[in-house]
Amino acid sequence: MKIVIVGSGYVGLVTGACFSEVGIDVTCVDIDHNKIDNLNKGIIPIYEPGLEDMIVRNMKKGRLGFTTNIAEALQDAEVLFISVGTPPDEDGSADLKYVLAVARDCGKHIKDYLLVVTKSTVPVGTSAKVKQALQEELDKRNVNIEFDVASNPEFLKEGAAIDDFLKPDRIVVGIESERAEDLLKSLYKPFTLNGHPVIFMDIVSAEMTKYAANSMLATKISFINEIANLCEIVGADINKVRKGIGSDSRIGQKFLYAGIGYGGSCFPKDVQALIKTASEYNYDLRVLKAVEEVNKDQKLVLFNKIMNYFKGDIEGKIIALWGLSFKPQTDDMREAPSLSIVKNLLEAGAIVKAYDPIAINEAKHHFGGTISYCEDQYETLIDADCLAILTEWPEFKFPNLKIVYKLLNTPVIFDGRNIYDADEIRESGFDYFCIGIDTAK
Ligand code: NAD
Fold it and tell me: Which of 266, 374, 386, 434 is catalytic?
């Protein structure tokens, strides 16, 4: 089978690489010429463990190609996946202009039956709009070509995307025809042989499932962060509380880590978009509005702790930051808590020195010359007045505390990800602040 993936970002590249890995003939399309030129040279625009090897291997086998020419890519293709971005509009709703542009491109160029599958995260009703946009182009051409639409939201996690795609918890597919169901069943067969289920449903339910899933995860994070903030006030320890509640099988241990808020390209925009969808139907999603509000405040909890420690004056203080990406194993900084924290630190007159194992190039796009970038985590500490941990990269988990102590001007650590044991750090002579434990006592 020959398939086309339109949009060669995180989702498109992982989807394309994984389908080609199981022997399917894949063409990835993007409008970004520079990205496609680089991909054709084997240069991968994002950091995702295992992705580069898989792309290069399948390119060499001739099963994976890259182009900016969608008309050419569509030759003999039976299925096309839309995996372009759906960034938030000014009012929080998902901007569908890229998705609908692809639908129109399909309408302009198809010659035979095509199944158009929306993999981008899109609000309820989008597949109907995709269908309409494509049909309008066929009508303009005055041709009668059969096509189907389907919804197949993507649940991969950046940093573990390949594994998530190859061994998914589930694959959700919304269809409205048997032909579409059969095609997607056979396409996904290699990934479901070991019992990973494909859940078929109607298109609207599939579109809703993606938003409900991300909103649930964001809710867990804001919930535990609120409980953490209260723990600090009442003298409880969030780590103990987490273990205590997580051992209830109805609650579970996962996704209950207190920190400095969720970020990334999905949770913030998907929560916003679902709130907007609800309001369009005159329904007020109160829980999700609170989730968003808590998250916005949580991104500043660490900054506030730094300000308190230095009695409200950090002018000229040098702040060392470990970690800038929104989570480990990715260079993605979209909506990362580091963006809010750095902005506030700079506005308060502090000098920022930062290290991240992967995201430095990405950080340069965001901060330019306003902060300094270090090659190594210990280099950030030279002459620094404190250390703040913003991302829980594994390499930050067991630092040489003697070196950290020696290099810092003031031995104080602000741990936004609760990666250290408070007692151990304090026994090494540091003042230590984290989330959800009152360590000032
Ligand atoms: P991205 O920004 O990394 O990539 C999108 C790509 O689409 C870009 O390369 C862009 O140039 C290209 N593009 C835009 N318009 C185009 C057009 N008309 N024709 C061809 N290419 C076009 O986005 P992403 O992170 O891969 O996300 C894509 C979608 O998948 C979004 O809806 C997102 O919400 C969803 N999603 C993302 C993740 C994730 O972890 N990144 C996970 C699940 C779902």
Answer: 266
Distance 153 CA to ligand 1 centre (A): 12
Are 222 and 191 members of one domain? no
Closest atom, ligand 1, to C-alpha of 119: 30
- What is the pLDDT averaged over residues 257-271? 96
- The string of pLDDT tens digits covering residues 47-78 is 999 999 999 999 999 999 999 999 999 999 99
Q: Are residues 257 and 321 in the same domain?
A: no
Q: Is 266 a catalytic residue?
A: yes
Establish how many alpha carbons lie within 13 A of residue 197's alpha carbon, considering only the half-sphere containing its beta carbon. Answer: 3
* Ligand 1 atom nearest to 332, measured from its CA: 41
H/E stretch holding 256: none
ipTM over the 0.90 cut-off: yes
Pair 345, 314: CB distance under 8 Å: yes
The answer to whether residue 75 is domain-embedded is yes
The answer to which of 84-98, 115-129, 142-156, 319-333 has the lowest mean pLDDT is 84-98
Question: 31 CB less than 6 Å from ligand 1?
Answer: yes
Is 120's C-beta closer than 6 angstroms to any atom of ligand 1? yes
Pick the closest to residue 152 from 106, 201, 193 (CA basis): 201
Q: Dig out the tokens for 43 from the structure.
A: 């240069």
86 close to ligand 1 (CB < 6 Angstrom): yes
For the record, the structure tokens of 119 come out as 């993999």
Is the C-beta atom of 265 inside 6 A of ligand 1?
A: yes
Q: Which CATH number belongs to the domain containing residue 29 in this structure?
A: 3.40.50.720
Q: For residue 440, is it within any domain?
A: no
* Domain end (from 201, 218, 249): 201
Which residue range(s) make up the domain with 351? 299-433
Q: What counts of helices (H) and strands (E) characterise the chain?
A: 17, 14
In angstroms, what is the span from residue 44 Cα to ligand 1's centroid? 15
State the Cα–Cα distance between residues 96 and 101, nearest whole angstrom: 8
Claim: this prediction has a pTM higher than 0.90: yes
Number of compact structural domains in the chain: 3
Q: Among the three residues 201, 230, 250, which one is the final residue of a domain in this structure?
A: 201
What is the tens place of the pLDDT at every residue in 144-169? Answer: 999 999 999 999 999 999 999 999 99
Percent residues over pLDDT 90 in the chain = 95
Give the model confidence (pLDDT) of 355-376 as tens digits. 999 999 999 999 999 999 999 9
Q: 385 and 244, same structural domain?
A: no
Task: Tell whether 274 and 359 lie within a shared domain.
Answer: no
